[in-house]
Structure formats: C-alpha cells, structure tokens
C-alpha cells in the first residue's frame, strides 16, 4: 500500500509539473506556431470569428461560448473550461478530446509547440489587448 501511495504522489507531482511547464511556454515562439492556426482563427484587437471562433480570452473561457460563432453540438456540450491542460489535450488531438468537433485541424504533436501557442493565446485578454 505504501508503494502505491508513493507512485500516486509521484504521478501527481509529475502531472502538475508537466501542466505548469506547458502553461509557461514562450509567447514569442507561440506567435510563430499560431501561424498554423491563423487560417481559421484570429486573436488580438479587432479579432473576429472566421472559419473558427476568435480566440481572445480563451484561457478561462467555457467551450462553445463565443458570441456569434456556430459551434458544433459536441463543442457546446463538452462542459470544458479552457485552461492550459485542456487546451494541451485539445491541441494535441482535437477529435480525441471533443468527439464530433468540426475543427478539421489534425493537431500539434510537438509538446513545445503546444506550450508555446497556449502561452501566446494566454497573453490576450477577452478584449484582445495584451495582458
């Protein structure tokens, strides 16, 4: 039983460290990675919905909640509130995280790319102004 507790404590510490590291990505590098997303998504002052919803203020926002964007039922009903961990899972494989999403992007397989783009997205408030 003692070994089980040690393993559980280690796994928890590892998961927390991994999520924190992903949340601490490089904003400037993330700006470059976001070029892969920009064909469908906008961010920053004046950002508007496009093929995908605008992403201002995504960190801390409920999935499927941007005014004026026609989300899939899967996304609207996912119950997700976007944080570094959920964004990381989603950006790795959108269809695995939200089955039925209409996002056609295959995902970002590189951990650093995901951490960097999450940091970049997190640098914008809901109004599109840098935090």
SSE blueprint and pairings:
Layout: H1 2-23, H2 27-33, H3 73-76, H4 84-92, H5 94-97, H6 111-122
Helix pairs in contact: 2-6, 4-6
Task: Indicate the CATH class.
Answer: Mainly Alpha
Tell the overall outline. globular
Count of distinct strands: 0
Number of helices: 6
CATH topology: Cytochrome Bc1 Complex, Chain D, domain 2
N-to-C CA distance: 46 Å
User: What helical percentage do the residues reach?
Assistant: 40-55%
| Secondary-structure element pattern, one letter each | HHHHHH
Q: Could you say which structural class the secondary elements and strand pairing correspond to?
A: mainly alpha
Q: Rg from C-alpha positions?
A: 16 Å
State the CATH architecture: Orthogonal Bundle
Major sheet: size, sense and barrel closure?
none
Give the domain tally.
1
**Mean of residue pLDDT values:** 87
Unreliable residue runs: 3-22
CATH fourth-tier homologous superfamily: Cytochrome c-like domain
Proportion in β-strands: under 5%
């Amino acid at each position: 039983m003692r070994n089980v507790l040690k393993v559980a404590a280690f796994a928890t510490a590892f998961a927390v460290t991994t999520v924190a590291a992903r949340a601490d990505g490089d904003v400037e590098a993330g700006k470059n990675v976001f070029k892969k997303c920009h064909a469908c998504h906008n961010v920053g002052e004046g950002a508007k919905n496009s093929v995908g919803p605008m992403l201002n203020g995504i960190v801390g926002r409920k999935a499927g909640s941007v005014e004026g964007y026609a989300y899939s039922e899967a996304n609207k009903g996912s119950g997700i509130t976007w944080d570094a961990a959920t964004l990381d899972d989603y950006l790795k494989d959108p269809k695995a995280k939200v089955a039925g999403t209409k996002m056609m992007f295959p995902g970002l397989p590189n951990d650093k790319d995901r951490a960097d783009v999450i940091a970049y997205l997190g640098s914008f408030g809901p109004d599109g102004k840098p935090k």
